[in-house]
Amino acid sequence: MRTRLLGLVGGLMAVVLLALGVPLGIDLASVRTQRVFLDRLNDANRFVQVAQQQGDRSVLAAKLARYEEVYGIVVAVLDHSGRVRAASRPGLRAQSLTAPAQRLATVALSGHHGEPPHAIWPWTGAPLVVAQPVINGGDVVGAVVTLSPTDRLRRSVARAWLVVILGELIAVIGCALLASRLTRWILRPVLDLDLTAHEIATGRMAARALDGSGPPELRRLTGSFNVMAANVERIVERQRNFLADASHQLRNPLSALLLRLDSLSLRAPDGCEAEVDAAASEGRHLAGILERLLHLAQAEEADPLPERIDLAPIVERRIEAWWPAAHAKGMTIGRSGDAHVEAIADPVALSSALDVVLDNAVKFGPAGSTVRVSVEHAADGALVAVRDEGPGLGPDELCRASDRFWRGRRHQNVDGSGLGLAIARTLLEQSGARLELRTLQPRGLEASLRFGVAEPAQRGGV
Asked: Is residue 462 part of a domain?
């Protein structure tokens, strides 16, 4: 956003400076040209008077030669027929004059004064021509033509343009610095709001946007955002506390109930043992659900610390931990992929999430099958994938598999609480990672743990 805003402001500044600089440059060249033209016009009028008063051509030619020697300006006095009567250079002929000089001389011999010249540009090499008619007794008896070199004039125009260009460059730099500070001041609250929203979205509910900078409208927006974030944090905290308190409050009575059932099973009348065992089994199942709820509450309250770590050693340790359970069921766990894969991850979240997906893979995989675990680099970061050969999930089931307490119809008789994937997803999302599920063909399920490789964005810059 800052780049686009700076580009827009810079484009507007460039248009404004061009709109001011180009006419100014043209005006500077025109003013300097007119100044030189008026000076040459005065000289030409003076020579008109000399030509009217001086009848001796040699004396007139000497004055013209002296003028060219001092000022470097060629002067020619023509008679009424257009022939050179006297010139600052010996042997100068009317035909040797430049085409503009001949054209202006013709205009002067007709009794008219020539138009002022257009602006002389730094790249113009032609001399400045001034022609004035010589009138005696109301009749045009000749003309005075001057051809002035424009080197000094062109250098003067170039220097003036250089000053204008330098001034505009200084103005551009100043405006760019001002625009940069202005956009930083405007966009700093927006960037901080974006970073804070990202932190809250990844589970850091205590994150707040920095207040006190930027335009008043954005400061009000920041204050409203912080109030909203505080309300959301308070609501979530109440839900977590209720979940944890309810689990704790139910755990002790449930433990007492299980003890009573165990005691009752020892003294149960004949024929009642099965009922007592079934009740105890349901109690233990409920105790497992409460334990999972506590784990979920702890996962939601956790403040993960993502850091750049090597995922491979952690994955290998979890494979070793689950190898006995897989071996007891006649299954194997295979490892593939890269030997070292670095990513931004929370080691605790990675270990806990791997425990959940490996538990499901061993639990739902058939005897004699293989659970394949791969650790590899991905286009958007790093990937840890666990693939089993179980029944898999349907399209509708994939969308709900990580919901709390959800269990597939085919898995109702398998021990579990329906909270494992919910816990894994919560842990991963809070640390900036994500959990993805995909059904394999012809059978099986792939659980992918995806991690980023870029450091988290820091506050304070725009």
From this structure: no
